[in-house]
Design brief:
It is a multi-pass membrane protein. This is Flagellar biosynthetic protein FliQ. By secondary structure, this protein is mostly helical. It has one domain. The protein is elongated and about 65 Å long. It starts with a helix and ends with a helix.
C-alpha cells in the first residue's frame, strides 16, 4: 500500500464523515442562531429556551436525511470492502 492510497483513504473517510455530520450540524447551527437572535431582540436570557427547538430540529434533520445517510455509508463501506484486494497489493 502506497502513501498515496493511505492519503486517499483518509480523505475519503473525512469527506464521508463531513457529509454525514452536515445536515445535523447545520440544522443545530441555524436553529441556535435563530433562537439567539430572538433572545437578543426580546431580551429573554433563558439558557434552556434553545434546547427543545434544537432537539426537535436535529431529530427532524435525522428523520429527513437518515435514509440518505444510511445509503451513503453502505455505499462507502461496500466500496471500501471491494477495494481491499487492490489496497493489499
Amino acid at each position: 500500500m502506497t502513501d498515496t492510497k493511505i492519503v486517499e483513504l483518509g480523505l475519503q473517510a473525512m469527506t464521508i464523515s463531513a457529509k454525514m455530520c452536515a445536515p445535523v450540524l447545520i440544522t443545530a447551527l441555524l436553529i441556535g442562531f435563530a433562537i439567539s437572535l430572538f433572545q437578543s431582540v426580546t431580551q429573554i436570557q433563558e439558557a434552556t429556551l434553545s434546547f427543545v427547538p434544537k432537539a426537535v430540529g436535529v431529530g427532524a434533520a435525522i428523520l429527513f436525511s437518515g435514509n440518505w445517510m444510511l445509503h451513503e455509508m453502505v455505499t462507502y463501506t461496500t466500496q471500501l470492502f471491494e477495494n481491499i484486494p487492490s489496497l493489499l497489493a
